[in-house]
Design goal:
Helix content is 84%, strand content 0%. Helix 1 packs antiparallel against helix 2. The protein is built from three helices and no strands. The longest helix has 35 residues.
Length: 73
């Protein structure tokens, strides 16, 4: 039964890292768009803040589960 839990945990750890990387790309893209935008109505800033909070949530979850890129490979 332990091997089954370990297999499931490693599968979810890989998914967490993939989501973390996607969230990082999204956050950096939105931040870059906000930096280069000339006229912002506030919508882009709100999207950037949302992407930032999702990214930091995934980082805290990875820290809590003690997951890193090296442990997943």
């Amino acid at each position: 039964m332990m091997w089954f839990r370990k297999k499931i945990r490693s599968t979810y750890d890989k998914q967490l890292i993939e989501e973390l990387m996607r969230a990082k790309e999204t956050y950096l893209m939105k931040r870059h768009l906000l930096e280069i935008s000339y006229d912002d109505t506030g919508d882009l800033e709100a999207q950037m803040k949302l992407a930032e909070s999702i990214y930091f949530f995934y980082i805290s979850e990875a820290k809590r589960r003690k997951v890193s890129l090296l442990s997943v490979r």
